[in-house]
Amino acid sequence: MLDLIGRGKAQTCNGTTRRDFLQVGTLGMLGLGLPSYVAAREAGKVDPAKDDHSCIMIFNLGAPSQLDTFDMKPDAPAEVRGPFKPISTASGEFQISEILPQHAKIADKFSLVRSCFHRGAAVHDAGWQMMQTGRLFTGGVNYPHAGAVVDYLRGRRSDLPAHVVLPETMGRGGGNLPNGQAGGFLGKRYDPFALMADPSQPNFQVPDLLPPDSIGQARIDRRRKMREIVEQTMTNFESSETAQLLDGSFESAYRMMTSPEARNAFDLAKEPMKVRERYGMNRFGQCCLLARRLIEGGVRFVTINTFLTVFNEITWDTHGSKPFTSIEGMRDIVAPMYDQGYSALIEDLADRGMIDSTLVACLAEFGRTPKVNPAGGRDHWPQCFTTYFAGGGVQGGRAIGASDPNGAVPAERPAGADEVVATIFHSLGLDLDTELPGPAGRPFPLVNFGAREIHELFS
Question: Where are its TM segments located (predicted)?
Answer without folding.
Answer: none
